[in-house]
Amino acid sequence: LALGEVDFLIIDGKSSKVNNFTCRSLKENRADGSYASVSAASILAKVYRDKLMIEYSKSYPEFGFETNSGYGTLKHREAIAKYGYTPIHRRSFKPVSQSFKRYGE
Prior knowledge:
Shape: elongated
Order of helices and strands: EEHHHH
Mean pLDDT: 84
Helix content: 40-55%
Largest sheet: 2 strands, parallel
Structural class: mainly alpha
């Protein structure tokens, strides 16, 4: 379905910065525990993310993406400190926002 065809959205997390929908929406913390569709979407998103992180690990092996699924493990934070951040890093992640070094510089 295209977003324009959606009548109602359920968003997992009240603090989500996602706003300005043209349809009705509900923001609920832990919605994946209350709504089967959100739970299913969460599983699909995590499987996709894990596969994506394995692919990213081939380009950036120093960061251990294949084992941390994008989470800031100690090894991952140490790699950011040593090598800098990559184009795929979230700028809002504190070790990245505090780093002035870009990967490969």
